[in-house]
Amino acid sequence: MNIKYCTYISLALLTGLSTVEASAQVVGGARAFEFLNMSNSPHVSALGGLAPANPEADVSLAMQNPSLYRPGIHNQLSANHNLYYADIGITNLQYAYHSPKLQTTFGVGVQSINYGTFQATDIYGSYLGTVRASDFALNLSAARQYKEHWRYGVTLKWAHSTLADRSASALLGDVGVTYFDTARGITLGIVAKNMGVTLKRYNPNNPAEPLPFDLQIGLTKSLKNVPLRLFVVAHHLYQWDIRYNNPADKKSNIFGADTTADNKTYFADKLFRHLTIGGELTIGKRLGISVAYNHLRRNELSTLETKGLAGFSFGAGLYLNKFQVHYARSFMATAGAYNEFGLNIALDKLFKVGSKTEPWHWNNDYPNW
Hints:
Layout: H1 3-16, H2 42-46, E1 76-83, E2 89-99, E3 104-121, E4 127-146, E5 150-163, E6 166-181, E7 186-200, E8 214-222, E9 228-234, H3 267-272, E10 275-283, E11 287-294, H4 295-301, E12 312-319, E13 323-333, E14 336-346, H5 347-350
Antiparallel strand pairs: 1-2, 1-14, 2-3, 3-4, 4-5, 5-6, 6-7, 7-8, 8-9, 9-10, 10-11, 11-12, 12-13, 13-14
């Protein structure tokens, strides 16, 4: 299939959503296991939190789209541990291994969030001790190539959440397809994320909370004469109107009546809330600079009085022979930015093994694509 037809399909899916009748709602906070949609590395954070079609040789990007697992990231380990807002600890691990015999690239990863301890009280305010809250997910992935320009992959996830004396678990899956054309510098990725079933509910007497499903399409273009890579990601494609009308933005007169006359359709705002755009500039062979803009994040996390840099993210990557060092600064809200560091390790280059372990294909070296 020619890449132009894939692009037409992507645009049709996005613009066609305008005919879907759906009430606007808050994207976050309405589903269980929302942590599965959080950025899993500083490189992803620098790209606006979404990267379903980034061709860089970084194994952490494969968690965004399982079809990005490929021989070029064989034996690469991504390790990230960060102190998030309010001393929340986040750990992400991702590893890839390619089996030439099976012609399949496998991946395994861990997502862990520790929210800390909290004081528990009854309805009268009496102290009952301390409780903990945490989220955890284990993912297993496999991807293969189809013909010359296509890769497809799946990820199976087991997620568990503990909130004080309540806990829940779910079995979920991601399915992704990637089209790549290195000659023209084009990468197109489509992924359906977090499809599955709840195995255990927080409250067995209530219906299960919906899972954080998302449908994303990403397109990345590397320019020929400039070491610059541009990208656009369309997300939340299952619903057209994801615009949130904040009640705090409404105005009233002295009689308490709502005076906010709003007959606008907000088509442009609704469209761009589905998009994340940005670019990556390569300086020499070792340094990469990233910048991205997330319109949905900017509008949901900023205020009418102060926009600041909410929705923007910046990052840098240092690419060495055995290591990759990544840094990101994300402006999640006008209250402040979040800094993140991460390390990728080429295990086969750091730890050489002897000829006795050649059947493991440990030292095999593959091109990126």
